[in-house]
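Table S5 (text form). Sequence records supplied for joint modeling of the four-component complex.
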Amino acid sequence: MCGKGESEECCPVKDILARFGDKWSIYTILMLGKQEKLRFNELKAQITGVSQRMLTVTLRSLEEDGLVSRAVYPEIPPRVEYSLTPLGKSLLLQLLALADWAKLNINQILEARERYSKKTQPIS
Amino acid sequence: MCGKGESEECCPVKDILARFGDKWSIYTILMLGKQEKLRFNELKAQITGVSQRMLTVTLRSLEEDGLVSRAVYPEIPPRVEYSLTPLGKSLLLQLLALADWAKLNINQILEARERYSKKTQPIS
DNA sequence: TAACTAGGTTACTTTTAGTAACTCAAAATT
DNA sequence: AATTTTGAGTTACTAAAAGTAACCTAGTTA
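The corresponding structure-token record, covering 248 residues in total, follows.
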């Protein structure tokens, strides 16, 4: 990708992968790809296992990168709608391909894990 | 992807993305995609910033999932060669597409970050 | 005899993620 | 009139993961 000793800025792939290199970003984009708009608690319900705090942190980071837009309606109780930006939608296409790969190959991966555990733990 | 309350096993996409949801896995596969075989220290030199421990941990995890194979030559000093398995190579294709997207859109993302920092930190 | 080598492991520190309780202000319920 | 509910978060705290640095192994070379 890049040479040695370069800064993050120089290396787009690494910089961007570092952003997705967390537990929730990719999954959040996939979920936002399924519906035009989603409110905070709708997202939270669909992304099984995410905590309120981590969803907030993830959405802020995606918003900062221009992948997700955040619309706040000044009501009480508050209403906030999240949606993918055009940039987010273009990334979604790549992530959908990745998701398809995952569905297609999950069995091979599970089998590999099985083999690995037998190889390293031969219960004597 | 899946409904609520399901276990990890039921949801291939989430399970697999959870594996790549770390700082080094994707980047390691991309590096192994550039050369048929790479030794531990060659990889370490190419993946800027990775520590010895994290490279070991990452490679073990990729090996466990059947994406990377590890060939140990019983010499002194030891020689260990890592390469992508056929499964790893099929994933590489998806990750290369993702890397291309990153190169193509890095500027838009950097501009978005710029806008975001100005919006949230208007130095009064 | 000491230093070097490649590919790790171990012990320890720092960063990040996860949990649970709390906030805000109006509207609805008791 | 006082209490509860509501959605979208914070805050403080704990657990887990990543980063750092020192150590190990056993043949070869200086």
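Note: Residues 39-41, 44, 52-53, 55-56, 72, 75-80 of chain A lie near DNA strand D (CB under 10 Å from a C1').
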